[in-house]
Design a protein that fits this description.
The chain has 2 domains: about 80 residues, no CATH class; about 140 residues, no CATH class. The chain contains 6 helices and 12 strands. The chain is globular and about 60 Å long. A 5-stranded mixed β-sheet has the order 4-3-5-6-7, with no helix packed on it. Strand 1 and strand 2 form a beta hairpin. Helix content is about 40%, strand content about 20%. The chain is an alpha+beta fold.
Length: about 250
């Protein structure tokens, strides 16, 4: 038996055990108890929560994104007692990971420089994706939508509903705006633009990573910036096709 606490930032949601792990059984269209390796959600009361370590969630299921953190039985029992007493529970702030020590200058190698540069470019790629897209919608105006992991889950979940034709208007929101109802055609347009944008940056990064691996000096690695022209021999077929199409 394993024990978990479910939190969202500084908000405590609840506690659970392996008996609360769930996966969606497509054959019978029901949620069933799941092993940790197969779990898509953890259930607390009538609500489902998904964390990134779990299997990909089903887009037809309502759930919330949260941190599902394994804890000891002792901590579980302490939290259970506090819940029973209706005491306020405030999660401790996450412990910042200890940064890896920088090597001495003489120990810096080309391979180490490549590793650092690849991590740096990956972070920039993810930041570019998260920053989002501008999309012209059916009202003739351009709207901006962020594309964090949570935003992507919501957008693609709504896209499934929009493409099913069962719902004419769906609730969503652009950056820094209140939630409102969007026509299904706009939800599809947002999802299509998001897919193209994510594909563009992911494909570019993969080709860039291949290019970085080919370099043979620290100075050449250090000169790499996100957006640099990638020599053709390191461009994937997908990246070539995306460039050809503009």
């Amino acid at each position: 038996m394993k024990y978990y606490k479910v939190i969202n930032g500084t908000t405590f949601i609840g506690i659970a055990t392996t008996t609360d792990l769930r996966k969606f059984l497509y054959k019978n269209r029901v949620l069933i108890i799941s092993s940790e390796n197969e779990a898509q959600y953890v259930q607390i009361g009538n609500d489902l929560f998904h964390d990134s370590w779990m299997k990909k969630p089903d887009l037809g299921i309502d759930y919330e994104v949260a941190d599902v953190v394994q804890i000891t039985q002792e901590e579980y029992e302490e939290l259970y007692e506090m819940i029973e007493k209706d005491e306020e529970i405030t999660p401790e702030p996450p412990v910042e990971p200890t940064p890896e020590p920088e090597p001495e200058q003489e120990d810096v190698t080309v391979e180490y420089a490549k590793t650092l540069k690849t991590k740096e470019m990956s972070a920039v790629c993810q930041s570019m994706i998260s920053s989002g897209i501008d999309v012209e919608l059916s009202d003739g105006e351009t709207h901006h939508f962020s594309l964090t992991e949570y935003d992507q889950l919501n957008i693609f979940k709504l896209e499934t509903l929009a493409r099913s034709g069962e719902t004419e208007f769906l609730p969503y929101h652009e950056d820094d705006e209140l939630c409102k109802f969007y026509p299904a055609v706009d939800i599809v347009a947002i999802a299509d633009a998001a897919t193209n944008y994510i594909t563009y940056h992911t494909t570019y990064y993969n080709s860039l990573k291949s290019y970085i691996k080919s370099l043979n000096s620290i100075s050449s690695v250090a000169s790499i910036t996100y957006g640099v022209e990638i020599p053709e021999e390191f461009q994937s077929d997908v990246w070539k096709e995306l460039n050809k199409n503009g």
